[in-house]
Every structure is written in C-alpha cells, then in structure tokens.
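Support request, please re-run this one:
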Amino acid sequence: MSRAFNARDPRLLRNVPLVLLANALLLSPIALVTADELTDQNWFQWRGPLGTGVALNADPPIEWNETKNIRWKVALPGKGHSTPIVWGDRVFVTAAIPYGDELEPRYSGRPGAHDNLPVKQHHRFEVLAIDRRTGKILWQKTVREARPHEGGHYTASLASSSPVTDGGSVFAFFGSYGLSCLDMNGNVQWQADLGDMHSKHGHGEGSSPVLHGDTLVVNWDHEEQSFLVAFDKRTGRPRWKVTREEVTSWATPIVVEHNGDPQLVVSGTGRVRGYDLSTGKVIWECGGLSANIVATPVAADGMVFAGSSYEKRAMLAIRHEGAKGDIAETKHVAWTRMTGTPYVPSPLLYGNSLYFLRHYQGILSRVNSKTGKDDGGPFRLGAIRDVYASPVAAANRIYITDRDGRTQVITHSDHPDVLAVNQLNDSFSASAAIVNNELFLRGERYLYCIAEK
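Re-run finished. Output below.
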C-alpha cells in the first residue's frame, strides 16, 4: 500500500536552505512567512522547494483547456525551456530573443553534430518578472546580447537553465552567455562570464544553478575541461573552482545534508559525486550511470536517487550518510535498477514512491524508494508521447506534460487512475511549477497560470 504523503513531516524540510527562511523574513517584499508557508507559497528553484518535484499542501486544478481554468495566459517574447519560478506575487522566466538582420547561418562544428539548428541572428538574453495575479509583465531585463556560437538541437532552447531566487535576488544562468544576479526589481547586481560551453554534438546547454545558504553553484560539464564553480551569492566572487573529469551533462546539482553539513551531489557520465559544499572537495563517488546525463537526481531521508538512459539504462539508490571514497561496491548502494530509467525527464520523489519515465516516453514506473521494487506498473500513459518536462506532484496527484501540449493527471496510488487529460495549444518542454492552487506551464509561445477563476 502507498504511504500517505505528510506535508507537515519536519523531515521533509531538512533540505530547504535555512537562508531562504531568513530571507523570507528579512528581504522579501511579501509578508513574513513560516517554514510551512515558504514551501507552500513559493517555487523558488528547479524541481521545487524540496528539489523533488513535489508542491507541499498545494491543490491545483485537475482539469483545464484553453477556455477552462485558465486564470491568465501571456505571450512570451522569446523561446526558453527553463522552468518558471515563483516567489510571492511574482513569476520569473528567462528567454532568448532573436533580433536584427538575418546573418549567414552558423552551424555547430562539434563532432557528431546532427539535428541542430543554425544560428542566424543575434539574441538578447532576458529575465522577465510577471505579476502572479494578472499575468502582466512587470519588468523585462536584457542581461546579455550576443550571437550564439552554436544553436543547439532543434528541440532545445538557448534559455534552458532555470533561474533560482532567495526572495531578495534572482539568479539567472544562460551558460555561455553568463550568470547574472538581479534584485527583485530587475536591477543587475553582478555578472560572471564563464566562457563558451561546447556541448556534445553541439546539442545545447541546460544545467541550472543551485543555491544553498550564501553559496551559488554552477556545473559546467562539456566536451573540453569541465568544472564546478561556487560563487558568493552577494558579491559574485568565486569561492572555489574544481575541475571534473567529465564530458557533457545537463543534470542540475542538488544539495543534501549529513549531520548538518551540506553536500553538493552532481550526476555525471563517469560518476555520481558528493562534494563538500564549503570547499569543493570530493567526499564520495559512485560509477554506474550511462553517458549523456540529463536527469537531475532527487534526495530525501539520507538517500540519493540518480538515473540515466542512453546506451544503457541505470538507476542508483545511494545512502549518502557516512559515505567516503569510492562507494560503488559497498553497502552505500542500497539498490540498482536497469530497466525503464529516465533520459530527459528527472525523477519525482513523492513520499516513499519514486516515479520516473522510460527514456522520454509515456511509460511510467513507480517503485518503492527504500527497496527499488515496483509498486505496481510500469504503467503506459496512453495519451502521453514524448516528454521532456519532469513530472510534478501535489494533493496525491501526479502531473505529466508532453511536448504536444497534453498534461495527464493520475492518482498517487499503487495502481494510478487517470483523472484527466488536458490539452493546450502550445508545445511544452519546460517543467511545471505548482504553488497553492495554481499550476504554471511555460510553453514555446505562452506562459499559462492554471487555476480556478
């Protein structure tokens, strides 16, 4: 039987950075909030407040279409696959906007390049703040103008890294086109240029920054020298930088805690590694994933779950507490799985259930996170086809959105029932954000706020 998800369980708040609570009290323009209210009222980073894809105590609609349960819909000025983030009364998105005369096409010269779009124009890389209540664009800030050195896969975007906020600043990462810190009114506080990223096959960029305390971390895995770099979020000064023996990955780092000490966990083709957040020193590492790492790990209760699917399929369940050195053949690997694992969409961790899609197709596995055993399934999602967006959850429901504009809503249960299949007139690669009774979907052309009117 599935265990009911207890949103008030204090263990579920362990991975919420304490600085976010402080900033909610000191920096945010909204009313003072408690820890529970923070997780309820904000979706401040990629994969939500706990980094697991779950919205605590939220209750968004089950059904919608272009004329039902759309509070507002706003046209976006440019393309982006970054997830919208929400803080207080504002929604933040990033976009890459072409401008100027059409130029001689610039093609990616990376080995094995295929299915890529050429670059034909300069682009503005912008951050937008949108009124959560009305959908009005409050401000739109250009943080960089450039002609991209490569365009990416035809399904990709030049704004695929999701921003993160602490309620006082917004941190927007455009990979080769820089890292920017803006205040809540759109004023640039500092910027960092990390150089040009050279992705595998020239397919593009997409790892998002992670924020914990005063430390902001970017993972830079590509076909040349890869590295991790940590910045002081207040000043933009680097705190440390370490090289990585890795090739291109698109996974976002996560932060876990062991005895109050934060560890940075990063998936890669060579290894999943745990780093000391304060120094960048490797604490533990474990091989076993495939090449082309896209899915971001999830973690809770002393466990990290990392999956991949390319030339092979793999899911690793790792006990990170007390882990040291190479743990591949030790008791710290709780279980492994070699079937049905995710390529593009990241896993969803909801209570004791770990959900993941096969590759990026509409076949869903639901396994017990403690044992790796199937809790029923796998389940074929008949209405869902290609899925790049990661699944999200709220109110004992799972929301899965595909690239054809459909979102299938199913029950969080041993044998999920289909509650609805909802169609919108857009294509979706960005993952949804859920706050209170609202669900935010960012498409190729529009940003939707889905809520009962």
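Residues 10-100+122-450 form a domain with the Methylamine Dehydrogenase; Chain H fold (CATH 2.130.10.10). The CA atoms of residues 21 and 35 lie 6 Å apart.
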